Amino acid sequence: MSTAQLQPTRREDPRNRRASISVVIPAKNEARNIAWVLERIPAFVDEIIVVDGLSTDGTLEVAKMIAPDVVVVHETQPGKGTALRAGFAAARGDYVVMLDADGSMDPAEITMMTETLDQGYDFVKGSRFLAGGGSTDMTWLRGFGNARLLDLANVLFRTSFSELCYGYCAFRRRALYGLELDAVGFEIETQIVTRSIMRGLRIAEVPSNELPRRSGESNLHAFRDGVRVLRTILRERFSAPTPTQATPRLEPIPVGELDGAEERPRSRAAL
């Protein structure tokens, strides 16, 4: 593939935001996927952080070709949770967005997530099960397991979420640090949700569409990771200290209600 073919094709931001945005992308051997992801990250994003888990296929070389100013964090310990926590520690933006490197998440949805943060929310989580969302990569086993874990979490935490085990999320950075995350694997997505509830954060769900992984095999193992999520739900509910604030009210945001979001100036040099 030539250099010319790999050049980014980002669009200018029509909204000119003020809040700075960091995107954290954990990646291991995603050379065949990460170009597609980086090319589609909106131009208003100020900082792109790729957390590399000792890739051997040229992932970082492709990333630097597409986004020469990418911030690279080398993480030698395994696990998605470990990688995300390393990326969060390096992020400098007012808002932090989690994004997978395999092409299963559409970077264009960063716009909707950050607009929702602009409305005063602390934590915005994507949902494949709200109107306007969906998945073309959901097996029967994953769907059944997700539904049962979601039901349990909604009962134990007295919430009405439509989604639990999905990692397309955005935060205010100051709220993220207060979660004191320590999860190692895929269960970090559940830990983020449960600790956001227990800390009394203002949470919103927005529709998200999960795409098929563009190439290669997923590191997700439905049964093993489902058990880890179950343990996380129980531990966070029964071992965590009593929250000092009332459990936040979940407020799903329909797509159409974001059209009037306030326009605020921002620049790439804001960080």
Model description:
The structure is a single chain. With 271 residues, this protein is of the alpha/beta class. It has one domain: Alpha-Beta Complex (Spore Coat Polysaccharide Biosynthesis Protein SpsA, Chain A), CATH 3.90.550. The protein has helices at 34-39, 59-66, 80-90, 110-118, 140-157, 173-177, 188-198, 222-239; strands spanning 21-27, 47-52, 71-74, 95-98, 123-127, 134-135, 169-172, 203-207, 209-210. The strands form two sheets. Strands 3-2-1-4-7-5-8 form a seven-stranded mixed sheet, sandwiched between helices. The longest helix has 18 residues, at 140-157. The chain is globular and about 45 Å long. Mean pLDDT is 83; it is low at 1-12, 243-249 and 258-271.
Strand content: 5-15%
- CATH H level: which superfamily? Spore Coat Polysaccharide Biosynthesis Protein SpsA, Chain A
Share of helical residues: 25-40%
Distance between the termini: 33 Å
Main beta sheet: strand number and arrangement?
7 strands, mixed
How are helices and strands ordered from N to C? EHEHEHEHEEHEHHEEH
Q: With helices defined by DSSP (H or I, 4 residues minimum), what is the helix count?
A: 8
